[in-house]
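Reposting from the mailing list since nobody answered there.

I have sequence plus structure tokens for a pair of proteins and want to know whether others read the tokens the same way I do. The first protein:
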Amino acid sequence: MQNFGIFFNPNYKTTQPIFDLLEKLHSSKDLHFFMFPKQKKLFPDFIKSLGKNKLDCILSFGGDGTFLRASQISLEFDVPLMGINLGKLGFLSESSLSELEKSIDDLKKNKFKVQQRMLLKIVVKRNNKIIYTSSALNDAVIYKGKEPRLIDIRFYSDKRLVVETRCDGLIVSTPTGSTAYSLSAGGPILSPLMDAFVVTPLNPHVLSVRPMVFASDDRLSFELQTNGSECILQLDGKNSQNIVDNDEIIVTASNKKISFIKLTNKTFYQILRKKLHMGKR
């Protein structure tokens, strides 16, 4: 690997030590770093505009939110993605700034794997017409919005009723997203190499409505009764679409997958133990 795209958290302030390290790697290891058009004002001169150069990897500098934004660029350019954690948790990140030089050496020595991760495809229908389509790496969240009252959601799998419940909303997550918002709401942890959905209700009025796991070839659909209030569809932590009474939200597995760089000296379970303190007393 020699050509790296650089994606930054634009709100990160202490950038000079990062640029110093990248310039050192540029000179000593004959690496080439490229910026993306929306971030061209963030970088010094040795980081070039992409042009027609073919990238080998995209490095995302920031936390998990930055990584999720970078995933859209990874899909656009069909290039694997690796996260460099500058945030607090950085669960999706494979390396840190202090480990970056060694991680680059591992990449150049082919000491890595490329993992394919599942994406959600989300469609919103209103009056039987599609009004919104998008994708998500972590999760799609149907949330009640500003109003304090519960909403009614009727949930189907392959057009068969699963449950009707009153709640604050629900989360549909990928295995990658099972360690994010869904986990905080009581959902299970799935291996990121699986293809499956986790549906996790948010504060259901009936306690027997629990998180459920569905096969990735299922077609999940959700019908809303919002009692006149406007709800919100959030994708990967961003408010993406307002939804109203009788809207239908359809979630399926995307026919695209995103490629993650996985260094061979770390396992998913090591990361769980280290970053989520799993099993510690």
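The second protein, same order (residues first, tokens after):
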Amino acid sequence: MKTVCLNFQIHQPFRYRKYRFFDIGNDAYYYDDFANETILRKAADHSYLPANKIILEQILKYKGKFKVAYSLSGVVLDQFKLYAPEVIESFAKLADTGCVEFLSETYANSLVSMADRSFFESQVRAHDDLIEELFGQRPKVFNNTELIYSDEIGDLVQRMGFEAMITEGAKHILGWKSPNYLYCNALNPRLKVLMRNFRFSDDLSFRFSNTGWNEFPLTAEKYAGWMTNLPKEEEVITIFTNYETFGQLQPKSSGIFDFLKKLPEAILKSGKLSFSTPSEVINDLQPVSAVHVPYPISWADEERDLSAWLGNELQKEAFDKLYQLKDRMRNCTDATMLKDWDYLQTNDHFYYMCTKFFSDGEVHKYSNPYGTPYEAFINYMNVLSDFKIRLNAIVPKSAKDQEIANLKDLVNEKTKKLELTETELKKVKKEASAAKLTQDKIAVAAKVEQVKPAKKATPKKPIKK
């Protein structure tokens, strides 16, 4: 019997406000709070909450036969805490059913796996600690940012203690092979690899409401039928989509929520299909062969590589300048700086700088707050410049930076003393002014008394004899 492995990605970046050149060194708050709250609330109300409600209802209805997995970034969980705590509560209810698995990923949904091993490990650990704190699960299966995977990354992930990874079933990697099997890492066969079936996944994410698609409209019965008709020897259909597919990428009016409601019944009633979480898949199946991925792949665009984030000079410059700070960040203990450092690494900032304008251009416009990639680059570099100034003050790069930092501390100390002295001086002046005013009032009152005309004596009446 084939099994369907449903996985949903949930991530929202902290978007930056318009940060101008003249803000550098003068304003250390980078975030567009209004945009962040508005976008998160819209996603929660239109997508996350209604989809969670439907999935919970279906899990309870089918008593453990319907199962799903979620990959939530630490950044989106931070935003849920700020703007929509009820979303966390709804995921906790799903976790309590025992039919939902939470995947591991990088805390900031970052590209750190391409930059530094120790920071990669610390971000994954921070993410998994948060998942365990909120939902009582310690993830066993790893989902790297944007499904980025290579033989080396897989080997590292296994040595970090994970049993499996999910990545893209890219044609140029699999060739004639089907993604509908369990594979293993070419360097470290102990790591099992689930390959995303991009056809079934993209049918939901991109084609569902496309009236020009020859399979429109897509019904749950038709979708389940396609799966049933796959070659009988194929074992697992791994579907991985953005959770905003439900209600935003595909609006409610398209019928996507009705599709989600009917999908469990359509799949289970065939008797030839079941649902499994990623952990169940790797426990129940054996890898059919190793999958060789010498260069990093992802699920993005036609190329299925890293060009969506590191494909032009703008992106490479921003990426290199960011991770030039990594050695000093190891010595930084300031909580605010560490949080800003996490958010600077979020992959979306580099995605906004993408200059693809052809087959994938429309995809890169979704939720992009910038008019052009160049605006995105300039704004990000302005923020990064200010962050570097703050870092230099805390963890100087060189003896010269240390001297500058010491002088800055001295100037700040002198400035505070001057401000204190000025405050005291104003207070003394105010008191002196009040005293002088009192004296002036007394003097004026005395003068008034001096110039007052003497009272005329009242003539006495003659006494009558």
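Reply #1 (J.P.):
I read it the same way you do. The mean pLDDT is 91.
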